[in-house]
Design goal:
Blueprint lengths: L7 H4 L5 E4 L5 H12 L4 E8 L11 E5 L2 H14 L3 E5 L4 H29 L4 H8 L7 H11 L22 H10 L24 H32 L3 H8 L7 H11 L9 H18 L4 H16 L8 H9 L8
Parallel strand pairs: 1-2, 3-4
Antiparallel strand pairs: 2-3
Helix pairs in contact: 4-7, 4-8, 5-6, 8-10, 8-11, 8-13, 9-10, 11-12
């Protein structure tokens, strides 16, 4: 498209500017920019984050990687698309890298949340009840906030297609729901197997102690997986060269956000103590929720992975009563702490 005989490079004059808005590979985009610079043509990346129906309304978020002078030239053009523009770095490709971090957080949080929601269904909870209580506390994330209520209403939370991968041009994010339902042998939006409900007008019957504990475990499971995903993806971004403050600013206002990310990332960006959970207690809770999943036949791939990783962190800690997860993830990723700021 760029360097073919009839590509962009052949037809552009010196001083031209290309704005690449694809979800590309940062290193490849940077190589293209370097080659174009030899011809006097500038290229920057401005990755787009938003549901397809929001973009035409000016609701997109742009993640930009560009040197100062070129960004100044491009900004008036970018503002035609949206006013929400985040500069993610001075290097071409930094915007695409930020989008990769955000998308990874969104996708893994979505998968993990849906797995836990299916477990909740198999334990007797309705999807409507879960959508309500999961959005009240530490489990809240983009999926609980947007997707679960949409599924309750029988709607699609997004029309975002997956045509760029190997699943085929008709594949959509919503297909993930059907896959997880098949693995667990249940339906998320079905009323079959729910806790008994009182008829309209009857006094509300409080949840039993067992039901309340199940709710707590589901919330803890999602909060834990969100915390792990935030640490892991943020450290990947830092190792690449993104600043933690930029990751915090962008992710927490884009689709990768969760209650955990909105608590943790600002602390990491400011170099403050990020010890926001008791790791030992969290592992005990995850053991219980994984045992429940085994008993009910609901796979918890993400939650079980988090449990295993945190057990590793606990075993590696010199003081098991005070596990520093930030240090653990930083060491595991070999990310340098100065990049946090």
């Amino acid at each position: 498209m760029v360097f073919a005989e009839d590509g962009l490079a052949a037809g552009l004059t010196r001083g031209s500017l290309i704005i690449d808005q694809t979800s590309g590979v940062p290193e490849e985009t940077r190589q293209i920019a370097n080659e174009l610079a030899k011809c006097g043509v500038a290229l920057i990346d401005a990755a787009v984050s938003a549901s397809p129906h929001i973009v035409p309304l000016g609701g997109a978020t742009l993640m930009v990687g560009a040197p100062d002078q070129i960004l100044e030239r491009a900004t008036p053009i970018l503002r035609v698309i949206t006013e929400t523009i985040y500069r993610c770095g001075t290097r071409v490709g930094d915007g695409q890298a930020m989008k990769i971090v955000n998308n990874a957080m969104n996708a893994t949080t979505r998968l993990g949340t849906l797995e836990v929601a299916v477990l909740g269904r198999k334990s007797g909870m309705s999807l409507a009840d879960m959508a309500a209580f999961l959005n009240e506390g530490s489990a809240r994330n983009q999926t609980t906030d947007k997707m679960l209520p949409a599924l309750v209403e029988g709607k699609s939370s997004t029309n975002f297609a997956l045509a760029l991968n190997t699943l085929g041009e008709r594949a959509k994010l919503e297909d993930m729901v059907g896959v997880i339902e098949k693995l667990a042998g249940t339906r998320l939006a079905s009323s079959e197997g729910e806790f008994p409900r009182k008829e309209a007008g009857a006094r509300h019957s409080p949840a039993t102690q067992e039901q309340q504990r199940t709710k707590e475990l589901l919330e803890q499971a999602i909060a834990s997986l969100c915390l792990h995903i935030t640490y892991e993806c943020a450290m990947v971004g830092v190792k690449y060269g993104l600043a933690m403050k930029d990751i915090s600013d962008v992710v927490n206002k884009s689709s990768g956000w969760s209650a955990s990310s909105r608590t943790l990332l600002p602390l990491l960006a400011d170099g403050k103590d990020a010890s926001i959970i008791d790791v030992q207690q969290s592992i005990q809770d995850l053991n219980q929720v994984c045992s429940l999943a085994i008993r009910l036949g609901a796979p918890l791939l993400i939650v079980n992975s988090v449990r295993n990783i945190w057990e590793q962190a606990l075993n590696a800690a010199s003081d098991q009563g005070s596990v520093d997860l930030a240090e653990f993830y930083q060491t595991a990723s070999k990310a340098k702490s100065p990049a946090f700021h």
